Amino acid sequence: MANKMMIDDLNLYYGQFHALKDISLNIQEKEITAFIGPSGCGKSTLLKSLNRMNDLVEGCKITGQVTLDGTDIYRDLDVNLLRKRVGMVFQKPNPFPMSIYDNVAYGPRTHGIRSKAKLDQIVEEALRGAAIWDELKDRLKKSALGLSGGQQQRLCIARALAVKPEVLLMDEPTSALDPISTIKIEELAQELKKDYTIVMVTHNMQQATRISDKTVFFLLGEIIEAGKTDELFSMPKDKRTEDYITGRFG
Amino acid sequence: MAKSKEKIMEIVFLLAACVSILAVALICVFLFANGIPAMKKIGFADFLLGTTWKPGNDIYGIFPMILGSIYVTVGAIIIGVPIGLLTAVFLAWYCPEKIYKVVKPAVELLAGIPSVVYGFFGMVMIVPAIRYNFGGTGSSILAASILLGIMILPTIIGVSESAIRAVPGSYYEGSLALGATHERSVFRAVLPAAKSGIFAGIILGVGRAIGETMAVIMVAGNQARVPKGILKGVRTLTANIVMEMGYAEGLHREALIATGVVLFVFILIINLAFSIIKMRSEKE
């Protein structure tokens, strides 16, 4: 498998706070990579570095390099184009307060698609891609805020898919959802990895074992261990990884 | 002992609350009790739709004044809303801390200036500018609209800014994450979400503009006739009452009170619209 994104010697500071330390990691194409670790370990911070959402944080400073297909995303790539190619799904579902259709069409419209027929087609494809077309096809004009939490999150995934990203970042996408919705999102992620590279932050170790190919364990801003999910969970090389996955802390 | 003290305080609070309700009730009774009979005497249609106002001949048609109030209010909206809304967006999403510390108090100060001072500013700045550039006397719908447009700015800016700030940051982030620029995210994701709050601000501004008296009298010309262009003078409902109340008696006086009734109904409609929009936004 090819490397889709490569992180090389990344250091990130929030003001004086050294949030990520010497991170080097390869994200492989069409796989699910899970980031696990206790709260405040830097996993979400690293995720946000991959589509430069950290740019919004005042006093955030980054050294090192992150590349997407070999292009340096901090120096050689327009940030809006980067975010088109590297989509994101947030922890709390955040559909816009508009219709379901307009939510999904928001991204394509942003990138200049005006034709109604083309938009219709993209919206349908994206909703099918997020496995929510059958539930929503008769209420596309209704407000997205009327949907359940799980539906809202899948709508947000559809919205992200509508701009045809290459990588999909998911920041604890199921932590605000009930178990049934969680399973649906997990199944969806499994389905999506055929076409997309997925990086998922999760608090839930069972979730990581269920769906991810690679797992990366973070502690206090450092990568302690990274490897194939089944190996990392069955034979952790580092004592700290073992302590964490067996529930001794965190 | 403590119990009875509590009871007494409760009554005191109730009385305090009653004062404002009583004030509204008394105003309503006074207005309608005096105004409605006058309208009857003049004839409802003659009063509301009559285009001639000649108290000397006992002709009381306030249609020109109704139009006048509507014209200057619409003018104020056309001038005040775009400026106010863009200022609110600037304050909430673009303004650096340092500039904010200057602009925000300045806008608040704008709200505190007495309307007679606005009127004076209009008389010495706006009216001559219009006279110089477009001819005529300068006292006109245009002058009143510009002045009222400035006067409603603080209301529109204040209410819109808080509405924009109340929009969850997740909408903005969600939009950015789709590859939208800062501008697009603010105008297409954040602003639509603040829509009802912004409308509420505009409606409050309308209320302020339609009720304004002193500043308008000083720049509007006050001719009681249907205006034939924005450079012509105009008399509003409020101006009509203030200018003639001093010497009016008999039916003339009652006709002025009836003018107040019409104004009051306008304000009622505006407040009703405001509550409906507020209720709707809370439901969302």
UniProtKB/TrEMBL annotation, chain A:
Record flagged with keyword Translocase: yes
GO annotations of cellular component type: plasma membrane
One GO-annotated biological process of the protein: phosphate ion transmembrane transport
Domain of life: Bacteria
Main location: membrane
Membrane topology: Peripheral membrane protein
Top-tier EC class: hydrolase
Entries under PANTHER family matching the protein: ABC TRANSPORTER I FAMILY MEMBER 17 (PTHR43423:SF1)
Keywords: ATP-binding, Cell membrane, Hydrolase, Membrane, Nucleotide-binding, Phosphate transport, Translocase, Transport
UniProt keyword Cytoplasm, yes or no: no
Domain ABC transporter: 5-245
InterPro entries for this protein: AAA+_ATPase, ABC_transporter-like_ATP-bd, ABC_transporter-like_CS, P-loop_NTPase, PstB-like
Location relative to the cell: Cell inner membrane
Protein name according to UniProt: Phosphate ABC transporter ATP-binding protein
Functional summary from the UniProt entry: Part of the ABC transporter complex PstSACB involved in phosphate import. Responsible for energy coupling to the transport system.
Molecular function (Gene Ontology), one example: ATP hydrolysis activity
EC number: 3.6.3.27
UniProtKB/TrEMBL annotation, chain B:
Keyword Flavoprotein among record annotations: no
Topological type in the membrane: Multi-pass membrane protein
Positions of the ABC transmembrane type-1 domain: 66-274
Keyword list, A-Z: Cell membrane, Membrane, Phosphate transport, Transmembrane, Transmembrane helix, Transport
BP-aspect Gene Ontology terms: phosphate ion transport
Main location: membrane
Compartments reported by the entry: Cell membrane
Record's GO cellular component terms: plasma membrane
Pfam families recorded: BPD_transp_1
Sequence intervals crossing the membrane: 12-33, 70-94, 106-130, 142-164, 255-277
GO MF annotations in UniProt: phosphate transmembrane transporter activity
Family: Belongs to the binding-protein-dependent transport system permease family. CysTW subfamily.
Function: Part of the binding-protein-dependent transport system for phosphate; probably responsible for the translocation of the substrate across the membrane.
Protein known as: Phosphate transport system permease protein
Organism: Anaerobutyricum hallii DSM 3353
Organismal lineage: Bacteria, Bacillati, Bacillota, Clostridia, Lachnospirales
Gene it is expressed from: pstC
